[in-house]
Design the sequence.
């Protein structure tokens, strides 16, 4: 079964339409490849995630309210990355460890 028109004018019209459509598809592919390359560059340029986080209180002068392991889903936006020794010192000074990510266990911190 042949689903193409038999005459030359309609075949040329179909050819023109297919060429136009193919050009549109290729432009979309180029744009999608560009977006993917930008996304990959963004991921590569992203700074590494900190190993430990201190969650600050509601204002800048307040003390830390929790210690988190880096990447904890429960860490607030008020959290900042800190080195291991600062996280350990905060735990020793009584800042509670997050009950979800348990940084005290990862740090090997023993109460008392």
Sequence:
């Amino acid at each position: 079964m042949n689903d193409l028109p038999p005459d030359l004018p309609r075949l040329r019209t179909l050819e023109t339409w297919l060429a136009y459509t193919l050009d549109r598809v290729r432009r979309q592919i180029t744009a999608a490849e560009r977006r993917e390359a930008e996304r990959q560059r963004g991921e590569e340029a992203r700074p590494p995630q900190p190993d430990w986080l201190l969650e600050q209180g509601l204002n800048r002068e307040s003390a830390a309210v929790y210690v988190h392991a880096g990447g904890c889903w429960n860490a607030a936006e008020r959290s900042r990355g800190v080195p291991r020794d600062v996280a350990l010192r905060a735990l020793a000074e009584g800042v509670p460890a997050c009950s979800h990510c348990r940084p005290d266990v990862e740090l090997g911190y023993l109460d008392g």
About this structure: Strands lie at 52-56, 64-69, 79-82. The chain has two domains: 1-46, 52-107. DSSP finds three helices and three strands in the chain. Residues 8-45 form the longest helix (38 residues).
